[in-house]
Write a structure and sequence with these properties.
Helix content is 50%, strand content 12%. It is α+β, with helices and mostly antiparallel strands.
Length: 573
């Protein structure tokens, strides 16, 4: 049955592209808000909370298997009030319930996040992906819904006791102690990096492999020959192809293997913004042309596929036509024929140079990879053929949310890239003006909106931090003092709104949650705001010291994962 013949649920009235993806599910979804909570209390029904995002593969799997299943949806509708949340739109809700998931399961969370709450919003059960029926030791969704509803009906006091314990545990946080800022960072960083980095393929050893942009930036800035060599080697290995799309440009989220070949195929604006900045930095330090080419190709990809009105969309999906990676991979025979038809000489050997084989390098298909960075006319022509082949395919879904912090990452990267390609100055200035017009309204900064909607959710720490950094990048690129003044104003607002004696809050509204000091999906907003404050050092010295000392032990013990704060420490010491 097509969406046109289905009856939409309440999510049809939302702006979030992720929520709109679920607008025709048979699940009677609500968006997060009072309407759902009032309904839960009135009907004395527990709440099922599902958190995800549009580029999440397993979110799509659970939608197909569970939320599109009429029988399972009926069971859910009868027993629960169901709420859908876009984690990119509401990172405060997501962070709170990721913490709840850890308290309940003692395991790190992920997406989709599945939380079951009492009618008064107290969580009592948590999971991530839940299959439609029992498999691999996991209870099926239908059985889970039935069991939890029955438990709440027959033993409500026991469920509320568990929920109360979880709630108390979530509110209890160990008081952090300020450490001494008296250690030499470089020897610690060097020892940790050289022990952890993969000498053959670059990056931190193991799989999956993430790019760790802030760590690479710190290693490049260290001025240490061995750290510079390890970072440069990693950047080369990442650029060979796979996680980096050598056909159309742009980095995917991460590599499932240790050598950067098979990616999780979604492309996020934050990865590409941060990595353009790193590759531009690497070019500025080493003069290696490859690094500038990769940065430029990434920027071109973002403009070609991921932008409108000088603003940047949040993400493109891993899946298309219901299959992960379908848009990006190639069969041997079809590609050989296409190359021959286009006059590529010695098509088979050309494909082998691009990593192809008859048996494939990914599920009997091929991901393009140029191991030796060969740049012959034949290779250039073959890559054009591969790009043209994609024009006949359905491009993965693009989430058109405009997220302040992620746009700011791209804008910063463009200003940094403009040091070597002057044309990017005007583009970056246009985007900075566009994001200000879109998300700075009536003296308030907002977190996100779609291109054609007005913003509703006020900004979080990350938005202030990354936007202030973008204004500083504009000041450095142009010398225009109004950009520096704007950065200072944002920094002061961030301190006033989010700083609490060394502790930085991600949000201070409905959910008061602490910001992460470690660099996880992307660079820590604490690291970025402290980097901004460091620019205005004399005015914010005490705040920088208090912020660093609160995480001194972590910076010292785990510099690879606290790289942005380690960079501030390195620059402040």
């Amino acid at each position: 049955m097509s969406d046109l013949t289905k009856k939409p649920n309440r999510l049809i009235n939302e702006d979030s592209p992720y929520l709109l993806q679920h607008a025709y599910n048979p699940v009677d979804w609500y968006a997060w808000g009072e309407e759902a909570f009032v309904k839960a209390k009135e009907e004395n029904k527990p709440i099922f909370l599902s958190i995800g995002y549009s580029a999440c593969h397993w979110c799509h799997v659970m939608e197909r298997e569970v939320f599109e299943n009429e029988e399972l949806a009926k069971a859910l509708n009868e027993r629960f009030i169901s709420i859908k949340v876009d984690r990119e739109e509401r990172p405060d809700i997501d962070k709170h319930f990721q913490h709840i998931h850890y308290i309940i399961t003692r395991r790190s969370g992920g997406w989709p996040t599945s939380i079951f709450l009492t009618p008064d919003k107290k969580p009592f059960f948590a999971a991530t992906y839940i299959p439609p029926s029992a498999k691999h030791g996991m209870m099926g969704f239908g059985d889970t819904v039935e069991l939890l509803a029955a438990k709440l009906g027959s033993e409500p006091q026991e469920v509320y006791k568990v929920a109360g314990n979880i709630e108390r545990a979530a509110k209890t946080s160990e008081r952090r102690k300020h450490g001494e800022l008296d250690f030499e960072l470089l020897p610690i960083l060097k020892d940790a990096a050289l022990k952890s980095f993969d000498a053959e393929d670059g990056g931190i050893m193991g799989e999956p492999k993430f790019p760790h942009a802030s760590l690479l930036a710190l290693m490049l800035d260290s001025k240490d020959g061995k750290l510079l060599a390890a970072a440069s080697h990693t950047l080369r290995c990442m650029a060979k192809g796979g996680m980096y799309d050598i056909v159309e440009g742009g980095f995917c989220r991460y590599s499932v293997d240790s050598f950067w070949l098979v990616p999780h195929f979604e492309k996020m604006t934050y990865d590409n913004g941060l990595l353009i900045e790193v590759y531009a930095k690497a070019y500025g330090i080493t003069g290696e042309p490859l690094f500038l080419r990769i940065a430029d190709e990434c920027a071109e990809f973002m403009y070609e596929k991921m932008s409108a009105k000088a603003l940047f969309y949040s993400a493109s999906d891993a899946d298309s036509e219901g299959e992960e990676g379908r848009y990006f991979v190639y069969g041997w025979n079809e590609t050989c024929e296409a190359l021959q038809k286009d006059g590529v000489e010695d098509a088979e050997n050309t494909l082998r140079t691009l990593g192809f084989s008859k048996i494939g390098n990914f599920e009997h298909k091929n991901i393009a990879r140029n191991e030796s960075f060969e740049d012959s006319p034949n290779i250039q022509k073959a890559l054009k053929v591969l790009k043209n082949m994609r024009k006949t395919r359905l491009y993965p879904f693009i989430d058109t949310k405009i997220i302040c912090s992620w746009n700011a990452m791209m804008i910063t990267a463009l200003f940094k890239l403009s040091a070597f390609e002057a044309s990017y100055v005007s583009k970056a200035k246009e985007s900075l003006l566009a994001i200000a017009n879109k998300l700075q309204k009536d003296g308030r900064l907002y977190h996100c909106a779609t291109v054609n909607s007005e913003p509703k959710i006020e900004a979080f720490l990350e938005d202030y931090a990354f936007l202030a950094k973008a204004y500083l990048a504009a000041f450095e690129a142009t010398g225009q003092s109004e950009y520096e003044n704007e950065a200072l104003a944002l920094a002061k607002d961030a301190v006033q709104k989010f700083y609490r004696d060394g502790i930085w809050m991600l949000s201070t509204g409905e959910f008061e949650t602490e910001a992460d000091a470690s660099d996880s999906s992307y660079t820590s907003s604490i690291g970025i705001i402290c980097e901004v404050l460091l620019h205005f050092c004399s005015e914010f010295n005490e705040i920088i010291d208090r912020s660093l000392s609160l995480y001194a032990d972590e910076i010292k013990a785990y510099p690879l994962y606290y790289a942005s704060l380690a960079g501030v420490y390195h620059g402040h010491k």
